[in-house]
Amino acid sequence: MPERLGPPRDTPLFERVTLIGLGLIGSSIARAARHLNLARTIVAVDASEAVVERVKELGIADEATTDVVAGVRDADLVILCVPVGVCGTVAEAMRSGLKPGCIVSDVGSVKASVIAQVQPHLPEGVSFVPAHPVAGTEHSGPDAGFVTLFHNRWCILTPPDGTDEAAVARVRAFWEAMGSNVEVMSAQHHDLVLAITSHVPHLIAYNIVGTAADLETVTQGEVIKFSAGGFRDFTRIAASDPTMWRDVFLHNREAVLEMLGRLNEDIALLARAIRWGEGDKLFDLFTRTRAIRRGIISSGQETPEPDFGRRREDKA
Ligand SMILES: NC(=O)C1=CN([C@@H]2O[C@H](COP(=O)(O)OP(=O)(O)OC[C@H]3O[C@@H](n4cnc5c(N)ncnc54)[C@H](O)[C@@H]3O)[C@@H](O)[C@H]2O)C=CC1
Ligand SMILES: O=C(O)C(=O)Cc1ccc(O)cc1
């Protein structure tokens, strides 16, 4: 078992936790909740029969079904772990099964749109505490999850004004038990910050890999053959799930376009510095960005070595 997670709790935090969507994130929560005894019963719901069968084979949940109403019945905590574009549809579909006092949460990479989609479907007496674990990989599906995914990573909660404080505290306790550092902010602020720290970097990766592949003078073979440099890191990000990322961009449109505007201005300045041989401008920028990377490493949020080995060892 991984050393960095704490021991299992003596008593579970929740009686019955239902996870909807058992991909990378949902299956990692299932593994961590099981390992740490955060729920007496873990229920898995997924629209895909194949995923439900795989969850049963892996034994990472106590019950697994495609029936969302049956799956959420009697749950104390329901976490939507589906692409952000279907959160509203899932909320509407599960509504009749939710019991009063249930807490609904999610893990979506975008927050304002998810709140707008989900909240109208929740009955009186059900609290919604939106969450975003800022932790993941380019892999998806139930086999991609691992027990330590959230350890020493941030989880951002964006409860709308008026959300029951006790519900927020229980969701915070759940993420802290999985090793996350929890921060609370508004959904709008979250979406702006994540646009520049996560969404636009993914767009740049998709773009650069797409452009390189399209270049007539560079064959596909050469792109792969010479990808040992910086390009290789972009190909990892650009391998991320197409459905998930399509939804992220369509549901955080304004913030992403705002940040792309800023980025275009700065790229024009860099192009100008290169054209006019302004080496000091390039050097100053690269010095500042190197300090940012070193700050991330010394804060313990990233290992200096490539991630792949560590994540494989962490799998459980
Ligand atoms: N992949 C990542 O690195 C991170 C993803 N997230 C967020 O987590 C959520 C899930 O992402 P992943 O786990 O990576 O996706 P995934 O693609 O690995 O899993 C999604 C699962 O949802 C199921 N699903 C899709 N539509 C459904 C529906 N209508 N009803 C029930 N199940 C349905 C799929 O069958 C699949 O098993 C997304 O909202 C994403 O923005 C958050 C942090 C990191
Ligand atoms: O794989 C990577 O480098 C990621 O950036 C993972 C990731 C993807 C989406 C999120 O909302 C949070 C984290």
Automatic annotation (TrEMBL):
Keywords: Amino-acid biosynthesis, Aromatic amino acid biosynthesis, NAD, Oxidoreductase, Tyrosine biosynthesis. Residues 307-316 have a biased composition (Basic and acidic residues). Its EC number is 1.3.1.12. Residues 297-316 are annotated as: Disordered. Pfam families: PDH_C, PDH_N. Coiled coil: none annotated. Residues 15-304 form the Prephenate/arogenate dehydrogenase domain. Belongs to the prephenate/arogenate dehydrogenase family. This is prephenate dehydrogenase.
